[in-house]
Design a protein that fits this description.
Layout: H1 9-17, E1 27-31, H2 39-46, E2 52-58, E3 63-68, H3 71-81, E4 87-88, E5 91-92, E6 94-97, H4 112-115, E7 120-128, E8 131-138, H5 141-151, E9 155-157, E10 160-162, E11 164-167, E12 172-175, E13 182-184, E14 199-202, E15 223-227, E16 238-241, E17 247-252, E18 268-272, H6 281-288, E19 294-299, E20 307-311, H7 314-324, E21 328-329, E22 332-333, E23 335-338, E24 357-359, E25 385-389, H8 397-405, E26 411-416, E27 424-428, H9 431-441, E28 445-447, E29 450-451, E30 453-456
Antiparallel strand pairs: 1-3, 1-6, 2-3, 4-5, 7-8, 7-13, 8-17, 9-10, 11-17, 12-14, 15-16, 18-20, 18-23, 19-20, 19-24, 21-22, 25-27, 25-30, 26-27, 28-29
Helix pairs in contact: 6-9
Length: about 450
């Protein structure tokens, strides 16, 4: 006869209600979301920490699942919001890791052309002036900018269906039905309707913040309020540019050109939570140089874990933030945002600096100095697989493997391109390993004025 005592009904209910804590995942579960909160507002919670790759809203339950591009970005987000609970519409929301490792939602094929540039929130298609047109809204304005820059004038099919893309005056789409004419990818609960949907759009100022996380913010349009990071995570205040302003891009058959209104003009980045024992101006120059031409770098003299990086322009600065904020570098999760400074001042003659401020404005290693460079078409997020080019014919597979191993990398795969043996892919043990290897080995000298070119790859081996 057993000596154990049967659990009471209350004890059973308590036990059933408890959930074991989830291990870190790039999918985050967000609870107690107030009614009326939009998908863009939920996405804005994640943007300061890195790229948001998917979203699933459960309206009836006041919940959402937010998928970040990497586990590191999700970890940074949870670590930040756990002691500092975020608010949406003046109410606290709670963030934890999900049991899901990725989100698989329907209708992703409808986003295929444009989703490579960022998370697509909504699409509305219609005919106007005997032309087929569409309105497409991104979660982040810069993603819309890069989509236009990359896709305007390109053909959907070989030799036909040329895209003509311009920026819309609208800044938000309200979609009532999910059907073949319109789609809100954050709302799986919308009805199909009769196909004759109506579209409403808010005419708020482009890039204006919706003041959802910090309702008291009254700063300039285009900037979210300052985020206070926990002690040891960087400076006390980090401004987050444009994170809350969704943007609409219009795809139509009509030609036209329009500059982006309201993009912050600052090209200087504030980079924090760096490892002071490992970081160097040259290392930041090489890493940030993947996403733009770095003109100057300054590591703070008294706070070696903080640096300023000056890019060629504001567009490149924002691109670097999108891809590098939340990336692990030398054992720490790096934070990148716009600085309050407009330029990096070089040290005065005789001023003690210890080589912490460097000017790279005339460096031959700039990847984007040629406006026709293919590098503009090969900008990808940090990945464990690196693309190698400019490999001399005398260099073998073992030579390259040994080179990367000598820098502390774990080589998991390697292959030369069949059509061009000057190029290869090498897969390392982790994304962080690949970041370190790129810093160490980009421009490696093979002799006879032949230097290795290293970049992140969009594919794996």
């Amino acid at each position: 006869m057993s000596n154990s005592t049967p659990a009471t009904d209350n004890e059973k209910k308590k036990s059933k209600g408890k959930r074991s804590p989830c291990s870190p995942s790039r999918v985050l579960h967000i609870r107690q979301i107030p009614n009326g909160v939009t998908g863009a507002e939920v996405v804005s919670l994640g943007l300061p920490f890195g790229k948001v790759t998917n979203l699933l809203m459960l309206r009836g339950k006041g919940q959402a699942f937010l998928e970040m591009a990497s586990v590191d970005a999700a970890v940074s987000m949870v670590h930040y919001y756990t002691p500092a609970t975020p608010h949406l519409h003046n109410q606290p929301v709670y963030i934890q890791y999900s049991h899901y490792k990725e989100l698989r939602t329907d209708n992703q094929h409808n986003q295929a052309i444009f989703s490579k540039f960022g998370f697509v929130l909504k699409i509305v298609m219609f005919h106007k002036n005997n032309q087929f047109q569409a309105l497409l809204q991104y979660a982040d304005a810069m993603h819309a900018y890069y989509a236009k820059m990359s896709l305007d004038g390109h053909c959907i099919y070989t030799g036909c269906c040329t895209l003509r893309i311009d920026f819309s005056k609208l800044t938000n789409l309200t979609v009532k039905y999910n059907n073949d004419k319109s789609r809100d990818f954050t709302r799986i609960d919308l009805p199909f309707g009769d196909g004759q949907r109506t579209m409403e759009a808010s005419l708020s100022t482009p890039f204006a913040t919706q003041n959802t996380i910090f309702p008291s913010y009254t700063g300039p349009p285009g900037f979210a309020p300052a985020l206070g990071f926990p002690p040891g995570a960087g400076p006390s205040v980090l401004p987050v540019p444009g994170a809350l302003g969704p943007f609409t891009v219009t795809a139509s058959a009509a030609p036209g050109h329009m500059t982006i209104p309201g993009i912050p003009g600052n090209s200087v980045l504030l980079v924090s939570n760096l490892n002071p024992e490992a970081i160097t101006p040259y290392g930041l120059f090489i890493l940030f140089g993947v996403y733009g031409d770095v003109h100057r770098v300054k590591i703070m003299f008294k706070k070696r874990g903080i640096a300023l990086v000056q890019m060629a322009d504001a567009t490149q600065a924002q691109l670097a933030i999108n891809y590098l904020n939340g990336q692990r570098l030398y054992g720490r999760v790096m934070h990148a945002t716009l600085s309050k400074y407009q330029t990096i001042q070089l040290p005065r003659e005789g001023q003690e600096d210890k080589g912490l401020t460097k000017d790279y404005s005339n460096s031959p290693l700039h990847r984007f100095k040629n406006p026709c460079s293919k590098n503009f078409q090969n900008i990808f997020p940090p990945s464990a697989t690196l693309h190698l080019s400019n490999i001399p014919p005398s260099v073998t597979v073992d030579d390259l493997k040994n080179l990367f191993t000598s820098k502390g990398s774990t080589v998991k795969g390697f292959k030369f391109f069949q059509k061009d043996c000057k190029m290869a892919l090498i897969q390392l043990g982790s994304v962080e390993e690949a970041v370190h290897a790129l810093i160490e080995l980009h421009n490696h000298d093979f002799g006879e004025n032949q230097h290795l070119r290293v970049s992140f790859s969009k594919s794996s081996i």
